[in-house]
Amino acid sequence: MNTKVSILFTLALAVLIASCGGKKSNTEETTTEESTEAAVAATYTVDTLASTVSWSGEVAGVYGHNGEIEIAEGTVSTLGDSITGATVVIDMTTIQPMDSASYKDEDGRRASDLVAHLSTGDFFLVEENPTSTFVIKSHNGSELVGDLTVRGITKEETATISSLEVGPEGLSAKADLVFNRQDYEVSWEHFMEDMVLSDDIKISLEIVAKP
């Protein structure tokens, strides 16, 4: 009699353990499915009127020029709150200096004179290269790694994110990128070149994109 009871008790215990194990597995599967569903993939179109690109370059270590330039078009792809890819096309024909205090109403000193010079082969050769692009390849923490193309030359660069918001109504992001102009043959030939113009050009992106 004791042996039969012992066998029945053992079988009951085994069934109970198996049942508990099965429930745990189902819970884990449900949790995994919910986590996967939470990371939603989306693609946004850049609002070119609401987005801005600012640029700045230092001259003689004392002052510098800065301004804005328009975005022609762009898209941003995300997975959850992470950027998986993006393309931003910049219209190089829209270079606009904003440091108005640096200019005077006389030949060679106007803002339009600076724009004309930046558009030549000394700098961006705009007639042959009317656009520049930044194609984002990866997002890790606060860093966006992508391919920057200027004057038809492409180099890998890293932008640093200062803010990023992703939601069903759209995306907004701010990031800064500094590149060496010499890498893209933006090399103004001047007898005092090294003393006059810094090699670093800073680009600040403020992107607004909609579904």
Automatic annotation (TrEMBL):
Keyword Nucleotide-binding applies: no
InterPro entries per record: Lipid/polyisoprenoid-bd_YceI (IPR007372), TTHA0802/YceI-like_sf (IPR036761)
Domain called Lipid/polyisoprenoid-binding YceI-like: residue spans: 43-210
Pfam families (alphabetical): YceI
Signal peptide: 1-20
SMART domains per UniProt: YceI
UniProt keyword terms in alphabetical order: Signal
SUPFAM superfamilies, sorted: YceI-like
Protein name: YceI family protein
Organism from which the protein derives: Reichenbachiella ulvae
